[in-house]
Prior knowledge:
The model has no long low-confidence stretch (mean pLDDT 86). The chain has twelve helices and two strands. The chain has a two-stranded antiparallel sheet. The radius of gyration is 19 Å and the shape is globular. 63% of the residues lie in helices and 2% in strands. The protein has helices at residues 6-16, 30-34, 36-41, 47-55, 59-68, 71-74, 81-85, 92-105, 112-123, 131-140, 150-160, 162-176, and strands at 17-18, 21-22. With 177 residues, the protein is mainly alpha-helical. The chain has two domains: 6-105, Fumarate Reductase Iron-sulfur Protein, Chain B, domain 2; 112-176, no CATH class. Strand 1 and strand 2 form a beta hairpin.
Amino acid sequence: xxxxxxxxxxxxxxxxxxxxxxxxxxxxxxxxxxxxxxxxxxxxxxxxxxxxxxxxxxxxxxxxxxxxxxxxxxxxxxxxxxxxxxxxxxxxxxxxxxxxxxxxxxxxxxxxxxxxxxxxxxxxxxxxxxxxxxxxxxxxxxxxxxxxxxxxxxxxxxxxxxxxxxxxxxxxxxxxx
Length: 177
């Protein structure tokens, strides 16, 4: 029998109670049917199961599955297609974002996550603009991209606590190097 984490259950159910409307997931599967990631990857990514496990408070079971395959959670691109089509108006993307934050706090981040976050911290964007891209932009007459205020990005990352997560990952990487 899976262990129930009542804090996760309460938090997820609180997300389902928005304003005056109480949403109840009756497992129709529309979220899974319309999800572009699920369509591409099949059973490997299933937002319906993620919502069910989190609403039941099965955090430990869900996190064990995420340890085996981070894509179970991190496959979500936050496109919100599931939110738009859900007949019960469950905030599925919000629930998955909540779970991603809980996973980060538990140290369950996929390998790419810390590196991507460092790139954003250091450059203000996930994919830094290369000279070749700037040349193409100029050739197309669309000008150079705006300068990203990297100091503001760093301040936001500091305020949200992501630097602490990155610090832990950087310490582990230095210890194994």
